[in-house]
Design brief:
- The chain has 794 residues and is of the alpha+beta class.
- Helices cover 46% and strands 24% of the residues.
Length: 794
């Protein structure tokens, strides 16, 4: 009988061990040589990238200084052209230098003559100096005029001392377009280079900057070099031109990457190739040892057969042994316990086992087993249904190990039957529930995902892919790596923490907000939710099921709201600052008017008639009322709100404090103030005290004449709020006026009869609104008034 082709090849290998060893050695040398060459190319490419990055960094820093100086020059040109600042140059120069830190000196030139400079100290010598008459300065000054834009000359030796670059912007008249002069900014060279060239992040590299001559490149001149001497360049070199100054910035390596550095690696790989070839030789020349090992495995198999008898007694699984030559099948006693058939019944029919398999599963199982036996596989496993003696079907997992002869033919099969009915019923119920959920979720435009935590196997639906602009097939092959590749790097720790919280039991379900990359390149905010649906035998998570919805619009609205809040905070701060300054500036002349009127009245009271004194009284009273109004307006503007400042406020003690503060007024009117079981609330203490103070003093102010004022403060607890009622027996408020009283500067009575600015209740409304509540009034003329307001429970 002819040998199998695979055996012939093996036999050929065993007959030529030296040849196999040499071939393996050569093959490894070829692979390692390719790897060494690739590593060298990667080092060169990495160095080029580093030099390009460093060049961009240095060029950007220089350009940033030039851009800063350009801004200063344009501002100076504007002021000089339209405001004639030369006679009072110091404030303008100081302001420009403060807002442009790269600039050391600013100057204004009339034609070519310097007429103003800041700072003047140390630069006095340049006043009157005409750059157009200096041959060294004239050429680059004319270059700026011809460009009609900012041009940086130099580096040049400055007349006042030092080395610097001079940025000039020519100024032309609007009417005749006639050249008038320059706006100039000077950057000292040492200041520029100290902030730019502190250190290079590339070993064996240096920086060189030279002034280029566009008309004659041979006339280019190097004016900066990071090394004390001019090195020879054998390595990588990169250059970049800065047009606004005609500079060329170069970053270069003095020495290139030497191939000789790879020699130790090459030697190591040659030695490794020799060792690998020797190992292959040693392995191939020992077929006898392999045959011996096969015999040992056969003996172990016989021992395993012996252990089979004992194993059948220790497990609930059904152990079976099928001899293909005789068609005999031996089954352990557990078979009868599970399915009810005794050994005699099992042997009556050759097709006994096949007839027990469910008709729907039988064709597939028979074909699958036949294909496995005809292949070279040594293992077979299948899940199907079998019928017991009573006619009930059981779900089982049937698995076996196949023994083969030397020709690979299956001669025997030993296996086990494991009953999984309970687990399978649970899985089917879970699958049904999952299918129902999927149908529900599909109507919500949510993406669906499933993830095998143990293996990384992942399933997405079309909607999941559509959210990111893909068709599902475009993401294949799909695994958990697909999700990781689309996830924003900053969001990976967030998702991992939320996942761990769910796995550890801290959260009943997994929920996270993350960004995934859209097909078009932008980031999409999604809300991912899910939970563990099944666990492995050791209790660890096995399968997770969840959804994903697009929340980009929600996130955009949140960001817009946050920006608006910041703008509102900034506006409020500006308004408060303005109110404070305005009130101070308004009160100062008011105090002066009031003081001088009082002095006038004191000195000339006897000389004025009654009408004159009355006019002075009116003026003094009006000034005092205006001062009070300004103070109330300032207080209204100062009322701010920050929930971080909330604390526990005992409103009983707040009322006691207000009574103590207004004791004199209360006693003068004989008023009675009652507070009944007021709560402790979460609020900002000072505004709440101001709220109660305004309402109580309001009740005292508008008390009926010849009547004892009675004021009561009560509180009712609602589900989400505290509702306070401040009630009095005062003069009351007409119904048509009740909607107006909370507006700013609204007065219902004349100032002669009742003092005040009309701000008190407006302040009350602002405080209540800031605490999440509302304020309203119920009143009846001649009976009294009830003020209601709510404070949110937080």
């Amino acid at each position: 009988m002819s040998k199998h082709p695979q055996e012939k090849i093996l036999q050929m290998v065993y007959n030529h061990p030296k040849t196999v060893g040499v071939l393996i050695c050569i093959l490894f040398l070829m692979i390692s040589s390719y790897i060494t060459y690739t590593e060298y190319q990667l080092r060169v490419a990495n160095t080029e990238q580093q030099i390009s990055s460093e060049l961009n960094r240095l060029s950007n820093q220089i350009q940033a200084s030039l851009t800063d100086a350009t801004g200063a020059i344009k501002s100076l040109a504007h002021f000089s052209k339209y405001y004639e600042i030369e006679n009072n140059f110091e404030p303008t120069g100081e302001a420009i230098l403060e807002s442009h830190p790269s600039v050391s000196v600013v100057q204004v030139l009339d034609s070519g003559k310097i007429v103003a400079t800041y700072p003047l100290k140390g630069n006095e010598v340049v006043i009157g100096y005409d750059i157009l008459k200096d041959e060294k300065q004239r050429i680059e000054a004319i270059e700026a005029i011809e460009r009609r834009s900012v041009y940086f000359a130099g580096p040049i030796n400055l007349k006042q001392g030092g080395l610097g670059i001079v940025g000039r912007l020519p100024i032309f008249s609007n009417e005749s377009d006639r050249f008038q002069g320059f706006a100039t900014a000077i950057i000292y060279l040492n200041t520029l280079f100290d902030s730019t060239f502190q250190s290079l992040n590339i070993p064996n590299a240096f920086v060189q900057i030279k002034k280029i001559n566009p008309d004659n490149r041979s006339a280019d001149s190097v004016f900066f070099q990071s090394l004390a001497h001019s090195p020879s360049v054998t390595g990588i070199s990169k250059s970049k031109i800065l047009p606004s100054a005609n500079w060329e910035v170069t970053v270069a390596q003095r020495e290139g990457i030497s191939v000789l550095n790879q020699i130790p690696v090459v030697l190591l790989r040659i030695i490794s190739a020799g060792l690998l070839g020797f190992l292959a030789y040693s392995f191939v020349r020992q077929p006898a040892l392999l045959s011996k090992k096969i015999e040992e495995q056969s003996r172990e198999l016989l021992a395993a057969t012996e252990r089979y008898e004992y194993a059948t007694r220790a497990t609930s699984d059904v152990i079976w042994d099928w001899d293909f030559a005789s068609s005999n099948v031996l089954r352990s006693k557990n078979f009868e316990q599970h399915f009810g058939f005794n050994p005699e019944e099992q042997k009556k029919d050759v097709n006994f086992w096949s007839n027990l398999i469910h008709p729907e599963d039988r064709p597939y199982i028979q074909k699958n087993l036949k294909d496995t036996l005809e292949s070279d596989s040594n293992y077979w496993k299948a899940e199907f249904r079998v019928k017991d003696k009573a006619g009930n079907y059981h779900y089982i997992v049937d698995s076996g190990y196949i023994l083969r002869d030397q020709e690979g033919k299956a001669i025997r099969m030993i296996g086990a039957i494991q009953e999984i009915t309970e687990r399978k019923i649970a899985e089917l119920a879970l699958a049904s529930e999952k299918e129902r959920l999927i149908r529900v979720i599909e109507g919500t435009e949510a993406g669906i995902w499933e993830w095998n935590v143990q293996t990384g196997e992942t399933i997405f639906n079309e909607e999941w892919a559509r959210i990111l602009g893909y068709k599902l097939h475009e993401l294949e092959p799909i695994s958990i790596k697909t999700w990781e590749s689309l996830l924003h790097p900053e969001d990976l720790p967030v998702a991992q923490k939320d996942l761990e919280d769910h796995f550890s039991g801290k959260a009943s379900f997994y929920q996270t907000e993350i960004r995934l990359r859209h097909k078009e390149g932008h980031w999409v905010w999604v809300l991912g939710r899910g939970r563990v649906m099944s666990k492995a035998d050791d209790g660890s998570p096995l399968w997770m099921f969840g959804t994903q919805i697009d929340i980009s619009e929600k996130k955009a609205k949140e960001e817009a709201l946050e920006r608006l809040n910041k703008q509102l905070q900034s506006t409020n701060s500006e308004l408060k600052a303005f109110a404070s300054v305005a009130s101070h500036d308004m009160r100062e002349p008011l105090r002066m008017i009031s003081s001088f009127l009082s002095l006038l009245q004191k000195k000339y009271a006897e000389k004025l008639d009654e009408k004159g004194n009355q006019y002075i009284d009116f003026a003094v009273g009006g000034a005092k009322r205006l001062s009070l109004l300004i103070e109330d307006l300032l207080e209204y503007s100062r009322i701010g709100f920050d929930s971080k400042n909330k604390e526990s406020v005992d409103t009983n003690k707040t009322i006691e404090s207000i009574i103590d503060i207004n004791k004199q007024s209360i006693e003068a009117k004989g008023a009675q103030i009652k507070a009944e079981n007021l709560p402790i609330i979460q609020a900002i203490r000072v505004p709440i005290q101001q709220l109660f103070h305004n309402l109580i003093t309001n009740s005292l102010k508008f008390a009926k004449e010849n009547s004892t004022p009675i004021i009561s403060i009560k509180c009712v607890e609602l589900e989400n709020f505290w509702q306070f009622i401040v009630e009095d027996n005062g003069i009351g408020i007409e119904e048509k006026e009740q909607d107006k009283i909370f507006e700013v500067m609204i007065r219902l009575h004349s100032k002669e009869k009742y003092e005040g600015s009309g701000m008190g209740l407006a302040i009350c409304k602002k405080i209540v609104n800031q605490h999440g509540g509302e304020i309203w009034v119920e009143s009846e003329i001649g009976v009294g008034t009830k003020f209601f307001f709510t404070i949110e429970k937080t």
